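hey so i finally got around to running the thing on that chain from the lab meeting. sorry it took forever, my laptop kept dying and i had to restart like 3 times. anyway pasting the input first so we r on the same page abt which one it is
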Amino acid sequence: MSYKKLDSVFEALEEIPDHRSAAGIRRVLLLKRSDLPGKSFHIAAHLVNSRDRGKQSWEHTTPHTHSVDELSLLIANSGELKYRFEIDGGVIIAESPCAILIPAGRKTSNGGR
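ok and heres what got predicted. didnt touch it at all, straight out
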């Protein structure tokens, strides 16, 4: 088996389709679909700093689907944030830190509180 370093990419939320900027949230694409040819998923981490939030909402997506499975990591101080994931009309309330698998083709939206 060969090994390689994968380059993580900070992404501006507002440059991702169906997302908008949110104070206190930085997204890092840790594993891109192209990093593992033949696989159909990516890993995105959301680094959350509640001190930067102010009064702005963390609802930063509109309902959308992904063409590949997404493992979404929510990284903040333990218990600092409750995050709402809506997947195909079902609601998951997760507390940081956590990981949520969002299957390809499922309608999803999310945000914190």
